[in-house]
Amino acid sequence: MTWDYPEANILANSVGGFVPVVHYIAQCIETLPAHNKGIAIQADAQSIDETGDFVISTDPPYYDNIVYADLADFFYIWMRKSLKSVFPDLFRTLLVPKVEELVATAYRFDGDVKKAQHFFEDGMLETFIRMNKYANETVPVTVYYAYKQSEDDSDSNLSSTGWETMLSAIIQAGFSITGTWPLRTEQGYRMISTGTNALASSIVLVCRKRAVNAQVCTRRDFINALKRELKPALGKLQASSIAPVDLAQSAIGPGMGVYSRFSKVLEADGTSMSVRSALQIINQELDHYFTEQDGELDRDSRFCVDLYTQFAFNDVKFGEADVLARAKNTSVEKLAARGVLYAQKGVVRLLTREETPETIETKERIIWLLTQQLTRALEKDGVAGAAKIVANIFTSEPEHAKALAYRLFTIAERKGWAGEAYAYNSLVIAWPDIQSKAAEFQAQLKNAEQMSLFDVEINK
Questions:
Q1: What residues have CB less than 8 Å from 72, skipping those under 6 apart?
Q2: Most buried of the four, 75, 240, 311, 314, by CB within 10 Å?
Q3: Can you tell me the distance from the alpha carbon of 196 to that of 421, in angstroms, rounded to the nearest whole number?
């Protein structure tokens, strides 16, 4: 058994150490609302039977992603030797109990994947039914999920069995999803994140009890409402510089919010639309959103995006590139002269970031080229390097470059170009810092100009 991090020294003054952990917990307690007393109980979420209502915030198991009970055995056998006499009930078994753990692990069911799946689905549904029963009406339920969606199903790259099961359980239990927010809960230095496109955030689903008189709608009504509400929601997420790697996850919120507000969404044949079908439709609308953004690009950039989608930075015959360029009302020769393309001896290809010119032209700026220059500057000189470019541009073009980075990330992610996806994801994540640094540079430039005018006045 291998894992992706070393255990920290509990005596060290670093993450995982005793003193920092106590400090973190103390900070949480200090920020909690004041009450007369707090009550903590340990119970099975599927069978808990208490009185009253609760504020519920939960981080559910991630389908078959991590089997915590197996991992815990590594520590349990040593703790049992020293603590069995102190906590006899807690350490009554030789190994950590595993039957109750809510995970879809096939080997616990003699390799039967279907049994494991049904066990997880039934347990998750029962858990959310209990949550719905005890949830406080005035406070939303929050569900944390940091499980990146992936599916080998060619019809949908947004749905996964883990996500589908959890969303189905939430909705069947009587909840409506009212929002999704990414929270920075994942440490950037964890080994699983280093140099990869691992999720930077946990996605928090915000849920409330669905109205008992919720309406039934048709597939067409659902799609129309989705088209109306998803676009502005995605615009807000992009404006907040959410990482591209998190955007598809976050789109679930407004999308499933539309789906879950209805008691049923009926297909053309009268059957109820499944969560998987709803996720696929949300994914299609997400694609349309990015495709529409291509229309805001200049014609040269639209050509580059199409060429990148089909060939990346690889060679293509001149004739094929020329046909595409003419369709976009541009020319291979023009783009080669502008430092966007290599075009010689019947071969055309996009220049890589390392090959593109560093200088930014002030007229007819190509957003594709600006995006590549910003990405390279960030890789080479960090935030300051990219900020120097932005500081000299007083139009909305840098924002268009950031929007294009989202689009290019999506293309690279689906094509499996991990390095490319990582580069564009990094640019968007760093965008707030780039803007802040660019503002500093602009202020310094303005002060320098004012001082220069002041000197001229004195000399007069």
A1: 96
A2: 311
A3: 9
Locus of tokens 């200049």: 298
The tens digit of pLDDT for each residue in 145-175 reads 765 544 444 344 444 677 788 888 999 999 9
**5 is written with which tokens?**
């991090």
d(CA 302, CA 195): 29
Q: What does pTM read for this prediction?
A: 0.71
Token pair belonging to 418: 């991990």
Phi, psi of 55 (to 5 degrees): -85, 120
List pLDDT tens digits, range 282-330: 888 888 888 887 777 889 999 999 999 999 999 999 999 999 999 888 9
- Contact (CB, 8 A) for 187 and 5: no
Domain count, the chain: 4
- Which residue, chain included where needed, has tokens 């390097």? 385
Domain ranges, residue 93:
67-102
Same domain, residue pair 369 and 411: yes
List the structure tokens of 194. 């280093």
Closest listed residue to residue 279, CA positions, set 142, 159, 149, 423: 159
Listing DSSP states for 416-437 in one string gives T-HHHHHHHHHHHHTHHHHHHH
Comparing CA positions, the residue from 271, 262, 201 lying closest to residue 226 is 262
The three-state secondary structure class of 446 is helix
The verdict on residue 313 lying in a domain is yes
User: Does 271 lie in the same domain as 201?
Assistant: yes
Encoding tokens for residue 429?
A: 């994540």
Query: For residues 310 and 332, what is the distance between their CA atoms, to the nearest angstrom?
Result: 16
CB-CB neighbours of 208 under 10 Å: 18
Length of the chain: 460
The contacts of residue 67 (CB under 8 Å, 6+ apart) are: 101, 103, 105
Phi, psi of 335, rounded to the nearest 5 degrees:
-70, -30
Token pair 């048709």 is at which residue? 218
Question: DSSP states of 225-257 as a string?
Answer: HHHHHHHHHHHHHHHTT--HHHHHHHTHHHHHH
